[in-house]
Design goal:
This protein is mainly alpha-helical and about 45 residues long. It contains one helix and no strands. It has a domain of about 25 residues. The longest helix is centred in the middle third of the chain and has 44 residues.
Length: about 45
């Protein structure tokens, strides 16, 4: 029982780390998109 519980917690920890990685990738993509859009706005403003 104890070993199964530890394995479950290890699995949960891995899932949390995977989610954190996905969230970081989404943040990076959103920042890149925002920068690109701002550059386009500046170019159109000229």
């Amino acid at each position: 029982m104890g070993e199964a519980l530890i394995k479950t917690f290890d699995d949960i920890e891995k899932c949390i780390k995977d989610l954190e990685t996905i969230i970081d990738e989404i943040k990076d993509a959103m920042i890149s998109k925002s920068i690109y859009q701002n550059i386009k706005l500046i170019e159109n403003y000229k």
